[in-house]
Prior knowledge:
Elements: E1 4-6, H1 15-18, E2 38-40, E3 54-57, E4 64-71, E5 77-87, E6 90-100, E7 115-118, E8 126-132, E9 138-143, E10 158-163, E11 178-181, E12 189-195, E13 201-206, E14 212-217, E15 232-235, E16 240-247, E17 253-259, E18 266-271, E19 286-288, E20 297-301, E21 307-311, E22 321-324, E23 353-359, E24 365-372, E25 379-386, E26 401-404, E27 412-421, E28 427-437, E29 440-450, E30 455-458, E31 471-475, E32 480-484, E33 491-495, E34 502-503, E35 516-520, E36 525-529, E37 541-542, E38 549-550, E39 563-567, E40 572-576, E41 592-596, E42 603-604, E43 617-621, E44 626-630, E45 637-641, E46 648-649, E47 662-666, E48 669-673, E49 680-684, E50 691-692, E51 706-709, E52 714-718, E53 725-729, E54 736-737
Amino acid sequence: xxxxxxxxxxxxxxxxxxxxxxxxxxxxxxxxxxxxxxxxxxxxxxxxxxxxxxxxxxxxxxxxxxxxxxxxxxxxxxxxxxxxxxxxxxxxxxxxxxxxxxxxxxxxxxxxxxxxxxxxxxxxxxxxxxxxxxxxxxxxxxxxxxxxxxxxxxxxxxxxxxxxxxxxxxxxxxxxxxxxxxxxxxxxxxxxxxxxxxxxxxxxxxxxxxxxxxxxxxxxxxxxxxxxxxxxxxxxxxxxxxxxxxxxxxxxxxxxxxxxxxxxxxxxxxxxxxxxxxxxxxxxxxxxxxxxxxxxxxxxxxxxxxxxxxxxxxxxxxxxxxxxxxxxxxxxxxxxxxxxxxxxxxxxxxxxxxxxxxxxxxxxxxxxxxxxxxxxxxxxxxxxxxxxxxxxxxxxxxxxxxxxxxxxxxxxxxxxxxxxxxxxxxxxxxxxxxxxxxxxxxxxxxxxxxxxxxxxxxxxxxxxxxxxxxxxxxxxxxxxxxxxxxxxxxxxxxxxxxxxxxxxxxxxxxxxxxxxxxxxxxxxxxxxxxxxxxxxxxxxxxxxxxxxxxxxxxxxxxxxxxxxxxxxxxxxxxxxxxxxxxxxxxxxxxxxxxxxxxxxxxxxxxxxxxxxxxxxxxxxxxxxxxxxxxxxxxxxxxxxxxxxxxxxxxxxxxxxxxxxxxxxxxxxxxxxxxxxxxxxxxxxxxxxxxxxxxxxxxxxxxxxxxxxxxxxxxxxxxxxxxxxxxxxxxxxxxxxxxxxxxxx
Length: 744
């Protein structure tokens, strides 16, 4: 066999070309075959962390929660919050820290068991904020924490703890690692903390009388008397609730509060480095916004000194988001564009309840928070990414957002509390989840990690998750699936389906394993047999109609296969996006969507042709040999002549650039158009009666040309790296090879 490469656009190979391709005995490798499967766009759950992107812990059987997350220099993730500890009828809360390794497993080296508990001698307290010092030590701030109305031992004031990197208390800080600042009986608790470049610690909070409280501490935990009045600021001028603090590059401090004044307006306060009001900012150091947001506000200062503000909800179904200039005036040039908006005014794909703003070095930023699931306010985790001008970044997630769910059970409640950036650009989201089990609530703390770049796709027909295509067939006479697992040679034989079913294998639960799945035209229903319980994704159901062609792929880039069909009768694609499967009305999120693209005689050929991690709508038109591709990245349509009317479509990423390449199979010949350099390649492999079954059979991450020969029940593949000839007896003449279900 010999590969031929041409540097011109190829349309219709003729017999003169075919005569140049000699038999299988001669081999000269000229192109590399890469995986063609289900990639994921930036913002998908990071499968290298925890259980499919999520780590959770319940180190105590009693009530626990998290309020803050930090990432240590080694990439380990630490959640801080509180835990209720009871002795008889008396219950008190204490600081709680839980640490996960970089792979999401509980780190038992952290205080010996993965969790650290710190109390203030029987008082009620919880952690609300945390920050990592340059030396790796962790400063955690909090204070009074009520337990279901229990007022036992409620001691008010700032409570600050500093831990060594291993979770032990830093005895050089305060008294045995603890600092307590009562503000001369004013009370309150700490809600935000930052570490200055000189190592000093600034803490902000409020009390139940709406007094703003700020304090700065030296490295050893003593008050910095050069700040404010003897190290403290206590002011009842602002009606402060839920204070957050950030630091400018010039050392000035920005404090954002939700105020009980001005109908609940948001206020920004800027302090000089010594704690005095900065009169050059707003009106006497204070900016009062017309926004009236609920919940806690969040703030981030850009490198140009402009101030991004968000938090809670504006009640309009879109994120509350505003930017101020360095002098406190509103940045009129910053007009947020949240993407597609429904007729009801709700954002289709954005964070409606914002808990955190995360800045990227290039000026883009994340809004991290949630979206209500229904009228009971159950929340879905949502991360949106924006360009520096406030426009949604459509290259991230699906339509600019990553929409995630902690659990696939309907009786769960998730809240997003905090988020942090890793050095590689990945995002860690921290929150709480509770489940109703009988008449009891069971709580967990969790951390999700999402990707920052397009991830490698899953393998087609990979039933055991070893990233190799498995020899696999479906036998219509018995309705059995037979799989030879490449990982250990074991055999899967499972009856699944009924007469007349259409095979629809895919990774419907994002575990990188192919799931058994069928579409039953007689009842217009999809049936899925996932290999593991799902967390999000699709669960089958009524979708499509008789005569539809299966085109199930990942169209929204979340890693889950979406239910999808192409309807030849009207040239329409019908897609059920898995990202939105668990967000029903009343917030008007998309669920089932139809797109007209194609004609009755077209062959649907979806794939990620633009490399954004999302499948593009594409058809091959036999009548003129043209491929029409609707690129999801920019909404443009490309037209490429390549092939003749009798060709079978075998598109895939044949040059390893994470983009699907146009390819056809014709009477034992393979013809490919590489996306990386627009070069043509051809190879002879198989007979005209064979069925093409391309896949990664040798596990090198590259697609191998392969055929199934019904007359022999045999598979023949050519290893892409070693050029090894691979042959396997698996199946009989009536069988449908599973990789062939992707060929048209």
